[in-house]
Amino acid sequence: PFFWAVIPAAGIGSRMRADRPKQYLPLGGRTILEHTLDCFLGHPQLKGLAVSVAQDDPYWPRLPCADDGRILRAAGGRERADSVFNALQLLAARGADAADWVLVHDAARPNLARVDLDRLLAELADDPLGGLLAVPARDTLKRADADGRVRETVDRSTIWQAYTPQMFRLGALRQALDDALRTGVAITDESSAMEWAGYAPRLIEGRADNLKITRPEDLLWLQQAWVRKR
Ligand code: CTP
Ligand code: MG
């Protein structure tokens, strides 16, 4: 199916403790954000792409892709959900239909493989609702008490780590985010907004190396993998 893409890139990367937001750190000679955008820009089914950028961001205008006519710049918001919501509003204003698919993907995940993107699109093409890439929990999981002692071992077989892209119908996602933001309920991804609205998004197993750069060691790991790959 054809689809729209939304890339929230308006975070400050506080856990990364770098001199700039992590999406602008270098990876293999370009910025992380440019690699992330590349995962989508070459796709034949892409209808359009919106990237959410903070208002006073000095880095975005310096990227060559800032002039790319296929990319719409949306306003970053206070939380990730605000940034995504603003991008959805922009896409709707540019003619995206409520029934169209939207894939939301973190700017800080530059290692999305084309096979993962295509599997997500193919698996959910006929789904009324949508879903997300996710990875089954690998390690044995413990629930702790306040003193840092193990209270119990959690059944791992039903636990997944939520990745992106997360793929939903534009209208339903916009409504769920709008309601969640108005109510002030804590949501950390699109799926949690949809869950809160009463839906059950489908989990599509993805590759673990589509990791989100969160802390300095994540970038070190990815730089090594990048060198091996190219
Ligand atoms: N993001 C956004 N708008 C916000 C907050 C986050 O567009 N107000 C984006 C980030 O740029 C990132 C993605 O959402 O691509 C995932 O968020 P996260 O990994 O938490 O990034 P940051 O919020 O930048 O990092 P931190 O939480 O460590 O400050
Ligand atoms: Mg954050």
From TrEMBL:
Recorded superkingdom: Bacteria
HAMAP family associated with the record: IspD
Residues the UniProt record annotates as site (Transition state stabilizer): 15, 22
Signal peptide as annotated in the record: none
Organism: Azorhizophilus paspali
Stored NCBIfam families: ispD (TIGR00453)
Gene this protein is translated from: ispD
Annotated protein name in UniProt: 2-C-methyl-D-erythritol 4-phosphate cytidylyltransferase
Presence of keyword Transferase: yes
Assigned keywords, A-Z: Isoprene biosynthesis, Nucleotidyltransferase, Transferase
Marked site (Positions MEP for the nucleophilic attack) residue numbers: 156, 212
